[in-house]
Here is the input.
Amino acid sequence: MTLTVEPTGGDRPPTTALLKAPVRAVPKPVVGRDRFLDALRLFVMVLVVVQHWWLPVLTVQPEGELAATSVLSTPGGFALTWVSQVMPLIFFVGGAANLISWRSASARGEKASVWWAKRLRRLAWPVVPLAVVWILVSHLAVLGGAPAQPVLVGAGAAGMVLWFLAAYVLVVVATPVLAAAQERFGWWVPAALLTGAAVVDLSRYGFGVDAFGFLNVAFVWLAVHQLGFHYATGTIRRVHAGWMAAAGAVVAVVLVYAGPYSLNMTGVFAAETSNVAPPTLVLAALGTVQVGIAVLLRDRIAAWSDRPGPARMLDWVSPQLMTVYLWHMLPITAVAGVVVYGLGINTPDPMTGLWLLWGVLGVAVLLPLLLPLAHWAVRFENPPKVLRGDPGLIRVLAAAALIGGGLLALTVAGLGFGLAPVLGLVAVVSGLLLTAAPRVRPECVDGSAGESAEGSSWVHLLSSFVARVGGRSA
Here is the structure.
């Protein structure tokens, strides 16, 4: 999945753009790539890959099981998470891209059901080969003699990264509604969403029911996503960005030290509760800080990213960033397995010189493995041709529910053994099939019913997947 504007015609590739317009006006999309957004996405993905190698503490227990704890559990480790938790920036970038794409589609007279279908296909299709590979590799590794418990730890970590896509289904579905709200109410929309996040936290901690907190999956991420709308319409000026950074920092610090919140901002094998699962008002405040700082630095970042060298690099790497995000746990798991089990080297004590060396050498080994893998897997970015057309409102909303539910199941169950990963994958594929226009059931010459449309769609999707694996387009 890449965060792009849908092409307006011909064979031009998708582009990202910055819209500048009055608050009440409906701006026209400006053709051209906004490399500031690409640079933010690259920054986020680099940090994600680095922390997924560096933050887990892996040790083999005497009975042979793998213990996966976290640097965050060590004294002072929480401070790392205030820098490494950068996923709010991705929702911010996604908000800008989604608004630009939706307005471009609306200007062409494209219906919401068609736009939703396109976005859902780009979001969910790359997950199918990822899940298939992980489920197969997990079983083959155990059949080949690998211990099951550490394989499940790796498969669970691989599924963990899919939480973002599950949440992103929600923001995609909400985009047309919140875009209309943006036109009418402006800054009151993110203010209302943040107020909703505060009410959820008060209910969660006031009544002691943690389940209430998961309502903030909507309020927190939609609030940060809405800030991307304001960036896309040019309504986040430097003075706004300065106030956002300062006020967000004050709110985050006050809430952490005066409220019931954790100091941890991420949950990478963290033993204690974090501000991510479920999201809290503290995370929303941190996201506001990040957006404010990013906008304050926009001119410098844009000046760097528009230079010939960085521009070529961003143009080359940007289409592969989501592929890197989805697939990076495969080489991380392989390298960790070889080092920890094959060589008998546990993660060094955190916050030491050896731990720093472990991180640097690990990243150096991972890059030559990850880049070719991403280059191969990027072929799955574009959905197959069988997934096209207007599915209609009911089908596309059902598709969103199946895809979101399937991604959530894969996040919780992981990509290893058992029935749950298979059911999650089936839900995602079923949702993908629903994003296609309804197929008319064919009839034989004698008038009897022929092959069912649903069965035909599954066959076409499977043949497309096999073709992509072999390097052919379909």
Confidence is low (pLDDT under 50) at residues 1-31, 444-452. The two ends are 17 Å apart (CA to CA). The chain is about 65% helix and 0% strand.
